[in-house]
Give the backbone structure.
Amino acid sequence: MPQFELANFIPQMAWLALVFAILYFGVVTPTLPKLGRVVQAREDKISGDVAAADAAKSHADGVAADYAAQIAASQNAARAAIAKAKDESTQAVAAKLGATDDELKAKAEAAQVQLETARTGALAEIESVVAETASDIVHKLTGARPAIESASAAASAVFQRN
């Protein structure tokens, strides 16, 4: 192979260095500033995106804090409304219980009056029956019927003692 001969090796190395230098300075020199600008633009874009993300995060944190404050205010308002409704219902129940209690007392008093009336009537009827029975007993024992007024007075006297 001719390229490995020592006589041809030095000129080939010289041509290689010359072509490499031409290609390097012909390709790399114009390309390197463009590549630097692309890298710088990319760094600027990334840092801008990071700054925008930080701004968006701080905005989102502010919105989240506002949302949490609104939730807390709504919960407090709901608790107050529940407490108010509970107080109103407690007062309404107390008023109904008071009205029902008054109604029951009135009914109990009316029932007591009716009971006393019925008791008085029953006692009067019992006195009348006792007076008639006593009159019949005296009539059977003595043969003479006492006056109904005296029998009623005697029965009434017995009931007054007891």
Summary: The mean pLDDT is 90. The chain has one domain: 2-161. Residues 52 and 156 are 111 Å apart (CA to CA). Helices lie at 6-142, 148-161.
